[in-house]
Amino acid sequence: MAIDINRLWDFDQPALSEARFRAALIGASPDDALVLQAQIARSYVLRGETQPALEILRAIEANVAVSGSEAQVCYWLELGRAHASPAHPPEALTWKAQTQARQAFQEAFRRAKAAGLDPHAIEALHLMAFTENDPERQGMHERDALRFVQFSQQEAAQRWECAVRIGLAQALIRLQNHADAVSELQAATRAGTRMGTTHCARSAQWFLGWAYRMAGQLNEALALQLELEQSAAGSLPLLRAVLDELGWLYQALGDDERARLYRARALAPLGGLSKDD
């Protein structure tokens, strides 16, 4: 690809990302144009608008068969995401949606593996977890993805370690295996820091705090979330999650006044998240 998609993405601002993708369409090659359109579809999924995403993907479907391997894989990944992804509310993850997503992710994995596109193959395995309701099977997919990360020699593939370990930890928490979940999230934080995936590393820290709370280790959870509150200011979605989690923690610790204040800050409009409120 001639275009670096990662440089155009701001996952905290999908509308801004869409504008960048549309601007990049001007003069783009057919393969790059297909990938850009697929990313525009993804931006709608992140905004909770799956119908526009599916319409975009239907519009480019006829071009997939005559495109290169990477463009084909990107199409199948985003088609899967349009049916089932972390951005979908639980009620949207119906059996039909998960089945359609699973078929798309399997196709993406098959094509990525055949073409030696390790990062996309890992991405497909990681996303397969969202086509399952059973945490055992969710963990199975994440372990498959993690093995692929560990055996790949491609640096871009190794950058997936943080996200995959977070996914595995979530499955472990659902299985009430808090000790192993904590270990995975500590490893995820180290991997994100080592590979320069800062946003993922901070997300891993948030999940680590959440895992501590689920395990009843409230003081450890509180210390971590208070530390993260200071570094999350550049990401509004993460900051909201931190503030909300602090609300739950203070409630569990019996400090109802601080719990109320943190929840109010988490719900405040953009620009209204000052600690002085």
Topology summary:
Blueprint: H1 5-8, H2 14-24, H3 30-46, H4 50-64, H5 69-83, H6 95-115, H7 118-128, H8 135-151, H9 155-158, H10 161-174, H11 178-195, H12 198-214, H13 218-231, H14 236-252, H15 256-267
What does this structure look like?
This protein is mostly helical and 277 residues long. The protein has a domain at 216-277. Helices cover 75% and strands 0% of the residues. It has 15 helices and no strands. Helix 2 (14-24) runs antiparallel to helix 3 (30-46). The longest helix has 21 residues, at 95-115. The chain is globular.
Brief write-up:
The protein is mainly α and 277 residues long. The protein is built from 15 helices and no strands.
Computed CA radius of gyration, to the nearest angstrom:
19 Å
Instruction: Say what oligomer this is.
Output: single chain
N-to-C terminal Cα separation, in Å? 47 Å
Low-confidence stretches: 272-277
- The number of helical segments is 15
Strand content: under 5%
Largest sheet: none
> Structural class, please?
mainly alpha
Instruction: Work out the helicity level.
Output: over 70%
Number of strands: 0
Order of helices and strands: HHHHHHHHHHHHHHH
Shape type: globular
Mean pLDDT comes to 94
Task: Provide keyphrases for this structure.
277 residues; mainly alpha; 75% helix; globular
